[in-house]
Amino acid sequence: MKPAEAPRGDAPLAMICGGGSLPLAVADLVEARGRRVLLFPLRGAAHAGDYAARPHHWVHLGQFGTVARVARENGCRDIVCLGSVIRPSLWRLRPDLFTLKVIGQVAKAFHGGDDHLLSGIGRVIENHGFRLLGAHEVAPEILVPDGIIAGVQPSARTHDDIVFGFDFLRAAGPFDIGQAVVVADKHVLAVEAAEGTDAMLARVAELRAGGRIRTARGGVMVKAPKPTQDRRFDLPTIGPQTVEGAARAGLTGIAVASGETIVAKPEALIAAADRANIFVVGMPAGPAKC
Fold first, then answer.
1. 143-283 sits in which CATH class?
2. Sheet bearing 131-133, strands edge to edge
3. Of residues 93, 95, 76, the one with CA closest to residue 85
4. Domain edges within the chain
5. What is the pLDDT of residues 216-243, one digit of tens each?
6. Topology (CATH level 3) of domain 13-138
């Protein structure tokens, strides 16, 4: 099938929802503009209690045929995928009849990193008549702005660590490793991999508690999208839980790529940063250095 033409902005929006508070926060923002949202929470990822009071259609990972059928019946031509999902093995999917027909494409997408997998899923969605959008395209206010969000301006020394962190993430990006790094005095303390940001910060806290990091406090977490990743999926996200993890790790602040990072629960994030006395700043990630 040919990709769908760009639909009218007031057509209903289909949203495939993983875990966390972000999917419903984005749904609220979209609906506040007068656009109806059709929710598809994923079993095993989304929390049932969060959706009890809202119309929704539960689906398993691999049941895109069900999503496509219900979305078309409701006039949807745009789809957004967001929320946390633990990467499954191919054999743990619960494919419906439609997905079984394209299982070869799905299997091919699984042979690679997360970016390769998500881009492959995106192609399946678009090849069957839908337009795949990023959450920031339907709710741009979720993106971190440029400048200080909480706390004070980073010192010149910390600013150097932030620039170093962005440089590292650009260099590591082609290997599809992760979106975050912890840096202190231009020394990499930890790199995010499959465990995710929260677990990386917990690892730094353990290293610090065990005396493997020289100082009791210091360092900054830097987070940015990979240079070649599909921005419609898995943009970096921070929230109050990120701030609390950074505080437990003894960090002085968090720096993220402005305009390319999602902030969940901004008021709670600012309050958590104020309590922990750490800064949160959005900065342009900048071009790769030659």
1. alpha beta
2. 37-41, 13-17, 78-82, 131-133
3. 93
4. 13-138, 143-283
5. 789 999 999 988 888 887 789 999 999 9
6. Rossmann fold (3.40.50)
